[in-house]
Write a structure and sequence with these properties.
The protein is α/β, with parallel strands linked by helices. The protein contains twelve helices and 17 strands. It starts with a strand and ends with a strand.
Length: 363
């Protein structure tokens, strides 16, 4: 069928909305009429080709839509179901079978190469293949073919624009605290970088009962919002005595970094208490090195690790987040600003500049 989709053709260049052809869903897939899709930092990384997604491509990986058609062997979903689509995974490899779909052996195919396991794509234009299976969905479009493996049903009463970010950005920050770290009540936690992921981690820290919850950023407005969402302390990331200030609070049991900046990560490691954990969520430039003292690593028993999507299993953790939202524990409206589908470039620019925390397209 003919659809309208946002197509990335050149690194860092404005996106274009064009007509293209969407194929039928194959086994384990459905066709969706999209309602909304969040703009995530990962979309920008792909657009800039820091992730070498083959161009031309349709990005977008925080999609909300309704099922219009079913592929073969689809179980648990019906035409008319309203769903949220998260990151792709194969469901067959060791990590998928061990409750760790974020580390799927085939994640590179879905999240970077934007293709199915067999190398195909549901999208084309005038016979030319378009990379159209980004995160197993490519949701910057009026319609998408998406895998049910990474799909969760949504109740009709929840707003599409607030649910879309649960697919990736919000899920990553919340799950980092509640799943990857399993942060204990009363533990000291610092979050460096207060974008959508960092602010979501602050919401997660409040739910977990962490104390103190320290927000670190260079943007005063972001720090003010962090305090509204549950941060007990807000520190200027440019402060020359940042490390001293964090140590004055008694050091941290956990530090979550969303910046990917090596020096910031080094500071986070240095302020950990004995046996504390530094968790990195930010995308660093290729070849970046972590400046840590190996003697301190040995003698303190500290842990340094990364996390994909906060180690979450979407089919389990997204319903949990929806419950938190319905209980008033996740004021997502404070993060989101909506844009018309045709204003995709304005939304991207707002995200890149930091003017908006979480842009969401409405189809």
């Amino acid at each position: 069928m003919q659809i309208r989709a946002v197509i990335a053709r050149s690194a860092g260049q404005p996106l274009t909305i064009e007509s293209c052809d969407l194929g039928e869903p194959v086994a384990g897939e459905v066709r969706l009429k999209m309602e909304a899709c969040g703009v995530c930092h990962t979309d920008i990384v792909a657009l800039n080709q820091d992730w070498p997604v083959p161009l031309p491509a349709v990005l977008g990986h925080e999609g909300v839509g309704r099922i219009e058609a079913l592929g073969a062997d689809v179980a648990g979903f019906e035409i008319g179901d309203r769903v949220l689509v998260s990151f792709g995974s194969c469901g067959q490899c060791k990590n998928c079978n061990n409750h760790a779909p974020g580390y799927c052996d085939n994640a590179l195919l879905f999240q970077v190469m934007a293709q199915r396991l067999d190398g195909s794509s549901p999208l084309s234009q005038n016979g030319e293949k378009i990379s159209g299976h980004f995160f197993a969905q490519s949701s910057f479009a009026t319609h998408a073919v998406a895998a049910t493996r990474n799909m969760v049903k949504l109740p009709d009463h929840v707003p599409a624009e607030l649910m879309a970010p649960l697919a990736c950005g919000v899920q990553t920050g919340m799950a980092a605290v509640l799943v990857a770290l399993k942060a204990e009540r009363g533990s000291a936690l610092a979050i460096t970088g207060c974008g959508a992921v960092g602010l979501s981690a602050i919401m997660g820290a409040k739910i977990a009962g962490c104390d103190p919850v320290v927000a670190v950023d260079i943007n005063a407005g972001r720090l003010e919002l962090a305090r509204e969402l549950g941060a007990t302390h807000c520190l200027d990331g440019n402060a020359s005595d940042l490390k001293k200030q964090l140590r004055k609070l008694g050091g941290m049991d956990y530090v979550i970094d969303t910046s990917g900046i090596p020096d910031v990560l080094g500071t986070g490691f240095d302020v950990l208490r004995a046996r504390g954990t530094l968790l990195t969520l930010g995308v660093s430039p290729p070849g970046s090195q972590l400046p840590i003292d190996l003697g301190s690593l040995l003698m303190s028993g500290k842990t340094v690790r990364g996390s994909i999507e906060g180690d979450s299993v979407p089919k389990e953790f997204i319903p949990q987040m929806i419950t938190y939202f319905e209980q008033g524990l996740m004021p997502l409206d404070k993060l989101v600003e909506t844009y018309a589908f045709d204003d995709i470039n304005t939304a991207i620019n707002a995200a890149v500049s930091g003017a908006v925390i979480k842009p969401v397209l409405l189809m």
